[in-house]
Amino acid sequence: MASDAARGKTALDKGDYPAAVTHLTAALKSSQSPLWLIQRSTAYQRIKEYDLALADADNAVLAAVSRSRRELIGTSQFRRAVALHGLGRFGDARLCLNWCNKYNEKEKGLTIWLAKIKQDYEDAGGDDAECNKTTVKEIPDKVEQVNTGEQNKGVKENKDSVAKQAKAPAPAVAATQTRTQTAKDIRHEWYQSTSAVTIEILAKGLPKESVEVTFEEGSLDVNFPLLAPGSTYNFSLNPLFSRIDPAKSSFRVTPHKVEIVLQKSTPGPKWSSLEGTENIQSTPSTDKTPAAATKPQTETTTAPAYPTSSRTGPKNWEKVLGDEKDDEIEEDDEVNGFFKKLYKDADPDTRRAMVKSFQESNGTSLSTSWGDVGSRTFETKPPEGLEAKKWES
């Protein structure tokens, strides 16, 4: 049976954002997982509840920092920027994108949003505009959410409550809790063979029946209670670096750790990290014929105009910019529209800069400044875990 977190992710992927909020809210009652907060922030942003989206993104930053998850810190800063843009705070949004770039320069959609917010910043009046002032901090204060009914409306920061909690004495049970049983001190290690990836979560004295592990083809979710009342540890990977076989994957609980074995769906290729950058959709459980399992990555009637190191293969630049159904540029329709409009309305120098930087970098860089592009040659910088190869027609 799928967990609330898994159902929330499925609803988010299907575009059922209210359902995603409901399921993820239920999941977050057991653990303040940075990944779940990021996903709920995305759902709120899609239904234009920007205050709620910002609150979840702020808390996601705090949760990711506490777990030292650098890539999730970057994604959380990205979600802050998107929510702040929706609130018309372009200066704060631009600052959060800079922090995102510091933690993960390969964050999906970062290049497009940098260009979009830069344009909106300038259109609003530049440095002198009130909406372009910066007030956010890199590490935000914790935000308390106040839910009213099923709509989950009304978010405010309750500093007095947080201060009282900080001054209040810790529960008596915390004094007896061992060091390895606090969430911030539990760590994990991983290694791999050609056929499997093994993850070891180092935690002592866990009852076997208390450990819940959910395997899906593109994700892993681990939950178990800690000694402190109401405290739960969550370890989530979504998406995984590559597809796994849930039926052949397994886990076992020992006195010192939880050992999880992820069976690779395709033996051989090595994983460069546990998490990937592209969602992995689960395949139907029955009738997995080759025709149903595979689909051409590109369906064009003409040859690609430019080479690229993108996982989805070469793209025709004009096709990308002109196809109303293309969803590979960015997850949000408003950004996709902005990107197409940017190229359509650009002057010849800007268009030359976009084409030259995209072509010379094999699709890994994009610049709109001819003054910068015209005087240098762009190098190919493939995504982490991929190798650049010469493109042949």
From TrEMBL:
Residues 153-162, 378-393 have a biased composition (Basic and acidic residues). Residues 148-179, 264-332, 357-393 are annotated as: Disordered. Residues 163-179 have a biased composition (Low complexity). GO terms for molecular function: protein-folding chaperone binding. InterPro entries: CS_dom (IPR007052), HSP20-like_chaperone (IPR008978), SGS_dom (IPR007699), Sgt1-like (IPR044563), TPR-like_helical_dom_sf (IPR011990). Transmembrane segments: none annotated. Residues 274-288, 295-313, 358-370 have a biased composition (Polar residues). Residues 183-275 form the CS domain. It comes from the Eukaryota. Residues 305-393 form the SGS domain. Belongs to the SGT1 family. This is SGS-domain-containing protein. It comes from Venustampulla echinocandica.
